[in-house]
């Protein structure tokens, strides 16, 4: 009950209709709406990461009397929008009105993150096990440790809702917290984004230990597609090794190169190039292509030019949100994957209107 007394009861269907109308107005103004669909079944989440988040939230005994109402709100589709960014969760929840929820979460302490990486090193059997949450009991105990794991403690969470409820955690906030678990079912990398850590550091630690005794590239190429799709990891392309048959034997003399006189056609072509040098525009385009380096500042500048959030820009490029976030944090030249580089060059040539049109088609 709020300080103003009981409000008149409004049927759920009527409340949802009003809320959807308001969300549609926001969508037309350019707001990217990310709803949580209606949930069925007893469990809110299905995967390891989603269930672990929900179990962690339910361990907060101070909030246990509010959580059941939150589950009800989530099941009937009242969470009209939920977005996860570094250190912040923002949402719109349908109640008697359309309420705005903001949950601020402190970044994971550096020392705590180092402990997690150290305790997980060598404990993951394969990269796919990590991505799909099929972890050993030891690793599960590390990442879900209430005191030293990846999930936030109570004092690291700050809750805020625009509803008139007195309680620190109202039913709208509880619904959003459960909604995070549902979102982690689809995008587990968002947990690392929320805590302000680079998930690739955890993966790299285990790649070094797990593949150290294997043949070079054997397991890395096997899971490369899964890493890029699920976690947004950008691998640098490795040079192709020279086949053994073409390698010069140790101590053998280098092969003598035969020198051939230029053909008549080559001589005529060279003469034409001297008489008709490339135009200034062609030289400028060539120089631009050669000097065009991609930095974190360039990514942030292009995203600001398009007036897009990190989530929108990531969808436009076809990468994950953590990839964009990590790029903008880094200094120096970015070493992107070939397909991401092609996507970057194509997006960079777009105008603001063309970029928006392309984003709406994805």
TrEMBL record:
Chain intervals for the UniProt region annotation (Disordered): 242-289
CDD domains in alphabetical order: HTH_XRE
Protein's name according to its UniProt entry: Uncharacterized conserved protein, contains Zn finger domain
Domain spans labelled SWIM-type: 140-181
The organism of origin for this protein: Desulfofustis glycolicus DSM 9705
Pfam families the UniProt entry points to: SWIM (PF04434)
A single MF term (Gene Ontology): zinc ion binding
Keyword set includes Zinc-finger: yes
Domain named HTH cro/C1-type: residues: 299-329
SUPFAM superfamilies: lambda repressor-like DNA-binding domains
UniProt-listed InterPro entries: Cro/C1-type_HTH, Lambda_DNA-bd_dom_sf, Znf_SWIM
Basic residues composition-biased segments: 246-263
PROSITE patterns on file: HTH_CROC1, ZF_SWIM
Keywords: Metal-binding, Zinc, Zinc-finger
């Amino acid at each position: 009950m709020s300080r103003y007394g009981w409000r008149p009861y409004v049927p759920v269907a009527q409340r949802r209709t009003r809320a959807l109308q308001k969300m549609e107005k926001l969508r037309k103004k350019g707001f990217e709406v990310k709803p949580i669909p209606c949930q069925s079944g007893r469990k809110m989440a299905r995967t390891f990461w989603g269930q672990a988040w929900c179990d962690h939230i339910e361990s907060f005994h101070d909030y246990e009397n509010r959580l059941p109402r939150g589950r009800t709100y989530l099941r009937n589709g009242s969470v009209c929008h939920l977005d996860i960014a570094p250190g912040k969760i923002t949402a719109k929840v349908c109640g008697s009105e359309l309420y705005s929820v903001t949950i601020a979460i402190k970044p994971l302490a550096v020392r705590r993150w180092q402990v997690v990486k150290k305790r997980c090193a060598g404990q993951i059997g394969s990269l796919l096990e990590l991505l799909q949450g099929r972890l050993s009991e030891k690793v599960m105990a590390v990442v879900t440790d209430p005191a030293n794991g990846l999930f936030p403690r109570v004092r690291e969470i700050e809750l805020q809702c625009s509803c008139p409820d007195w309680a620190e955690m109202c039913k709208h906030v509880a619904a959003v917290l459960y909604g995070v678990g549902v979102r982690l079912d689809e995008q587990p990398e968002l947990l690392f984004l929320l805590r302000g850590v680079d998930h690739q550091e955890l993966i790299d630690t285990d790649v070094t230990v797990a593949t150290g005794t294997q043949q070079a590239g054997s397991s890395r190429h096997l899971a490369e597609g899964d890493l890029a799709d699920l976690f947004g990891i950008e691998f640098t392309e490795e040079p192709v090794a020279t086949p053994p048959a073409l390698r010069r034997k140790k101590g053998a003399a280098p092969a003598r190169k035969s020198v051939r006189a230029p053909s008549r056609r080559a001589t005529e072509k060279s003469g034409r190039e001297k008489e008709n040098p490339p135009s200034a525009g062609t030289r400028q385009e060539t120089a631009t292509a050669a000097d065009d380096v991609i930095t974190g500042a360039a990514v942030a500048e292009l995203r600001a030019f398009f007036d897009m959030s990190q989530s929108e820009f990531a969808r436009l490029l076809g990468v994950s949100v953590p990839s964009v976030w990590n790029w903008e944090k880094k200094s120096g030249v970015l070493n992107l994957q070939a397909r991401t580089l092609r996507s970057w060059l194509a997006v960079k040539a777009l105008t603001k209107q063309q970029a928006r049109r392309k984003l709406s088609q994805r």
